[in-house]
């Protein structure tokens, strides 16, 4: 079980890359690959990027170091909330083909949150 949780945490760690990209890259460059970026202000895109970055770090570092490991399931819950919000946004804007990705990451986040909580 521990190995499976680490694999899921590693996959959720991909949010570190996504967060860095949304935080540092110019919004016009992001909008080429992510159409949803055009619907939001630069500040909101940066906020989403920072929350994804912190969530990605939070699902790995606390558990790996043993320093405040309670932050790992809490970070996973945060990433799950982001995925629910993203799925609803995609559905509301007729981008239903992107929702399965959100569902996969939502399930990973819920599994990590549960697995590391109990």
> Count of helical segments?
7
Which percent bin holds the helix content?
over 70%
Oligomer: single chain
Report Rg.
Answer: 14 Å
3D architecture notes:
78% of the residues lie in helices and 0% in strands. The chain is mainly alpha-helical. It has one domain (2-117). It is globular. The mean pLDDT is 96.
Question: What can be said about this structure in brief?
Answer:
With 118 residues, this protein is mostly helical. The protein has helices spanning 2-12, 14-24, 27-33, 42-58, 61-65, 71-92, 99-117.
Quickly list its features.
single chain; 78% helix; globular
What does the secondary structure layout of this molecule look like, with pairings?
Blueprint: H1 2-12, H2 14-24, H3 27-33, H4 42-58, H5 61-65, H6 71-92, H7 99-117
């Amino acid at each position: 079980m521990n190995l499976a949780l680490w694999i899921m945490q590693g996959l959720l760690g991909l949010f570190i890359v996504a967060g860095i990209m949304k935080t540092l890259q110019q919004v016009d460059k992001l909008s080429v690959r992510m159409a949803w970026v055009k619907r939001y202000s630069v500040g909101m895109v940066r906020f989403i990027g920072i929350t994804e970055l912190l969530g990605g770090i939070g699902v790995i570092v606390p558990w790996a170091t043993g320093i405040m490991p309670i932050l790992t399931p809490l970070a996973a819950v945060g990433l799950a909330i982001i995925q629910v919000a993203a799925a609803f946004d995609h559905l509301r804007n007729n981008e239903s083909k992107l929702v399965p990705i959100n569902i996969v990451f939502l399930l990973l986040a819920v599994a990590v949150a549960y697995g590391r909580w109990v």
